[in-house]
Design brief:
The structure is a homodimer. In chain A, the strands form two sheets. In chain A, strands 1, 10, 11, 12, 13, 14, 15, 16, 17 and 18 form a ten-stranded mixed sheet that branches. An eight-stranded parallel sheet of chain A has the order 2-9-8-7-6-5-4-3. Chain A has helices spanning about 60-80, 95-100, 110-120, 135-145, 160-170, 195-205, 225-245, 265-270, 295-305, 310-315, 405-410, and strands at about 55-60, 80-85, 105-110, 125-130, 150-155, 175-180, 210-220, 255-260, 280-285, 320-335, 335-340, 355-360, 365-370, 375-380, 385, 400, 415-420, 425-430. The relative contact order of chain A is 0.16. The first copy, chain A, contains eleven helices and 18 strands. With about 425 residues, the first copy, chain A, is an alpha/beta fold. The first copy, chain A, has a domain at about 60-300: Alanine racemase (TIM Barrel, Alpha-Beta Barrel), CATH 3.20.20. Chains A and B meet through helix 3, helix 4, helix 5 and strand 10 of A and helix 3, helix 4, helix 5 and strand 10 of B. Chains A, B: It holds the Pfam family Ala_racemase_N. Chains A, B: Belongs to the DSD1 family. Chains A, B: Its EC number is 4.1.2.42. Chains A, B: One of its GO terms (molecular function) is D-threonine aldolase activity.
């Protein structure tokens, strides 16, 4: 089993890497007479404000993203905990590489396919924060963990699943590192009580070669109140301490992991001081900090910066780094503009996109939009923008939208353009959903 | 300007076709030691029931899809109208090719990028049922219409947009065919009244070489009541008759087009008998019939089969051809199973996926699920399945889900597996979102 702790490298030149060309059949790009590889995206020279991009397009602001990356790394460093950002948010290997280069300990992922994508792009430590189920999925992971330089963890919370994993990896003579997932009543996955936990531990004991318990994992995001979240986190520390004391943890350091993007501060406060009687890696897994948003995660982050002393004293904050640009397509009524942006382009499950700036081609720079403009509805390929009669807006103007819920925006795009401060494209980030 | 009416061919070997390899970084596929091209997907031998596919996966049932295709073609043939199915639903060139081979007159699309994808795969007649806005988007279409064998139409409904198009294509010495879009008060795009219509016609008159009016287009799906829809359709016939009488229609036959997937029968009834004083092509544009669903379009189709005499007398009906397969991942509470299927995999804006069948690996065939099972919530990568204590279900079982709203399911998948009646993969359909 790989317990390799060498710095994790993320290379685009991994020999397992296949495909991934960017061609002119993609939406939201500029002119591409020939397909290019992800490594050839420097120097394209596309300028957004010169209408050299086919809109709608998704863009990341390079400098903002880099600030967000540093903010979170600084936060976890001050708590002495490790960061394995949830890669399912972006599924963008170039962003994984930035996160790892910025100090992340590993990448968190949700499925076997996502894990394979990360591995193929050089990621060498993955927490798959999910149960691993199904023959083909087990084969995928089996191929990856055959590389002794690749460290992998997945979750277990039930007997049938453990026996299926144990049988599969026993037959292959392989060893899989697993984390006991604790769950909350009414929540998602994870053992609810001592009886379920005992059954899981008994099942693990049947497969001592194939399955090695490395620690404890929770996802606190299914709970809504700080007090119940803290109690849940304290339960995780207690369980891990007992398991460590009983010699059941086979990895040193043991792993203790939690945290989505809304409560990572509370997880850091509860987990960082834990003393379990053996060396411990505390690993946080927020996914949305890199791009942030102006919706659910802006709200959550504001709470964090109020309640957490370290976040409170940091001089900067997370800022939205992901926007969508689209054209005004029709203004059929005096108070209604139709925008060429739809459910095909943006998340809509946690609030509609928010108009931020307007740009009339030929002008010097985009301007902030009036505060009363808002999206009131979306169809597959259109958005309804509420305006007021007489507002300065016309067909052919370009609008920039902030978003809520980056995860479900990223998965609408096969590539996202990275812009500098002058709105010039400096890179293209591919996604693998 | 191309008014070519030769049979439209859809070839995967078009010389403009780039990229599109299928590799093992994709979700929902089987083992792929090497990347394959879309033409190499025959004979893969993957069997869904033998767990040779990494789930979750999206699948199309070949025979059902073929029946749906024939049903709609038979319907439009009986009305003597033409079919340009909305390709934005699937964005799958292999399905476009099936629709064209089955008798479709062209393909409808929503954006310049979608049009380019269709062209690159051999489609040679496209209605872009949208305004064409923005320099780069105009360039894309300009490149395509340079091919005299490619016939293209887009919509106009406002003066600024027309002047932008006129200036752009005048400078290139090209001619663009446009359709006047009529709209309804409170609806989406389209001219609302005679004043807007007159302004549009005056703007078109400024660009007689660059812009040629080919007919009238409406989208009735923004209205909800049959009576107002019929009135809207009758207005379209009246306007087109007046334009034809005034010699303003530059294409022969003139084009009259409407119909989403919910009211195509009413559109056929109103448009088919239209006599406008010149030859006329009536073109319907439903997009969802090929896969159908068990949600919004099942409900709409049931209404059609009640109210429309031709649909009523047809011996078959549309059937759902698209399903998602996923594993039971955890059963943490007696009445709750967690499924490895989330908002990343399925539409959720018009009802959650509906559990249809369950399969325990090793059994002979899938079984229908109990009627009381239902999805009660979805997260990015998980679904909550309500069950009853004691139900026969365990971790590792495979579940098939029907869906509501195929458009927002297709765009979650870069390829969809085509299955025969024995659940064997016979083809892979790629999407280009």
């Amino acid at each position: 089993m790989a317990l390799n702790t060498r710095p994790v490298a993320a290379s685009m030149n991994d020999t397992n890497y296949h495909g991934g060309m960017i061609d002119n059949l993609n939406k939201g790009v500029g002119a591409l007479p020939e397909p290019i590889s992800p490594a050839q995206t420097q120097g394209l020279g596309w300028r957004l404000l010169d209408e050299e991009i086919s809109l709608p397009a998704a863009v990341l602001y390079d400098g903002v993203m880099q600030q967000n990356l540093q903010w979170m790394q600084s936060f976890v460093t001050q708590y002495g905990v490790k960061l394995a950002p949830h890669g399912k948010t972006t599924m963008a290997p170039k962003l994984f590489a930035r996160q790892l280069a910025g100090g992340a300990w590993g990448i968190t992922l949700a499925t076997a396919q996502q894990t394979r994508v990360a591995y193929a792009h050089g990621v060498r430590r993955v927490i798959m924060a999910n149960q691993l189920v199904g023959k083909r999925n087990m084969e995928i992971i089996g191929q990856l963990i055959a590389d002794a330089d690749f460290e992998f963890f997945c979750l277990v919370d039930n007997v049938d699943g453990i026996d299926q994993l144990g049988r599969f990896y026993s037959e292959r003579g392989q060893t899989l590192q697993v984390l006991l997932e604790l769950g909350a009543a009414g929540g998602r996955t994870g053992v609810r009580d001592a009886a379920q936990q005992d059954a899981v531990l008994a099942a693990l004991a049947r497969w001592p070669e194939a399955l090695q318990l490395a620690g404890v994992e929770i996802y606190e995001g299914v709970l809504k109140q700080e007090a119940e979240i803290r109690a849940f986190l304290q339960r995780a520390v207690t369980v891990l301490t007992e398991l460590a004391g009983a010699g059941q943890i086979k990895r040193t350091p043991a792993l203790l992991s939690g945290a989505g993007s809304a409560w990572y501060d509370v997880v850091a406060e509860e987990f960082a001081p834990a003393r379990i009687g053996m060396p411990l890696d505390v690993v946080l897994r927020p996914g949305c900090y890199l791009t942030h948003d102006v919706g659910i995660y802006k709200t959550a982050q504001a709470q964090i910066e109020i309640r957490n002393p370290i976040a409170h004293q940091m001089r900067t904050s997370l800022k939205p780094a992901l926007q969508l640009w689209a054209y005004v397509q029709s203004i059929p009524e005096a108070d209604k503009a139709i925008i060429g942006l739809g459910k095909r382009d943006a998340a809509f499950d946690a609030g509609f996109p928010t108009p931020a700036q307007i740009y009339c081609p030929g002008d010097a720079l985009p301007q902030d939009v009036p505060a009363h403009w808002q999206i009131t509805g979306m169809m597959d390929q259109h958005a309804y923008l509420q305006i007021a009669p007489g507002d300065e807006i016309k067909v052919g103007d370009m609008l920039a939208f902030d978003i809520s819920h980056p995860c479900l925006t990223f998965d609408k795009w096969r590539q996202v353009l990275v812009l500098d401060e002058r709105y010039q494209v400096v890179d293209i980030v591919q996604t693998y959903f």
